[in-house]
């Protein structure tokens, strides 16, 4: 019997596929619902406090109100600090839960044991999961091509980049169907002209809870050419070994591996500024202090709470940030036009 296996964050999805099960990224299902706020209301009516992350409440409400999955793989280390409480409230309501942990120290041996335990829990094997690493590589290469077309060719929007790379966590429930969707998109994207933009923005942090974020950015004359977490979710790594691949994945291992990845993107993608998104009531807000200390680029920090459109205050702050970058580029004597686009200076003060 094929099971629908919910995941609370990116895990070695090859193990789920090797078991013949259907992976379901609960985050993607929650945020793509026509009315995602209903799941938050459900959680609060069930007793979840109001000052808890909207994503956590959304996942609880989704699982409990729809029973859309047969079991849940919960990331109990390497993700949100509230996931343990989410797991406990699911278990007390008779939802089967399989825990999975990324070792904070990025220890390969420990991660190998975790992947083995996950394989046993799903009645499959490491060797079967390893075969899926090879099967998925052509699709992962196509996702990397979408990313390249975003920052190098400028023909893919930041929102399209976000949507496709984020979907790599579960391939929208069907690898074959999702690959056809990617192929169709690539064919269309390659026939486009480049997006006209006066600022190249990097987005760092978890995907935004707002549904019009990227569209608003483009209306201000900017182009998001780097989506940090979303790119990581797509596993753009060369290693053929499943454990090494998830060791290279930066998200679960703290802020410092992420800094290395972000700094490389700043240089390679010629970013003008960074937007750092954090969820309300999330411990990751504290990491903003480190980004401001270590990254020599203008940073706008945004905080989101409920799903829906951007609020007026956040729109004003984004508009002012992009206008500041636009002015800075105009004044910067070291910026030169290359291939029809500007390559900005990568120095600046944190904001």
Automatic annotation (TrEMBL):
A Pfam family annotated for this UniProt entry: HGD-D
Source species, domain of life:
Bacteria
Checking Gene3D superfamilies in the record gives:
3.40.50.11890, 3.40.50.11900
* Family membership: Belongs to the FldB/FldC dehydratase alpha/beta subunit family.
Question: What is the name listed in the Swiss-Prot or TrEMBL entry for this protein?
Answer: 2-hydroxyacyl-CoA dehydratase
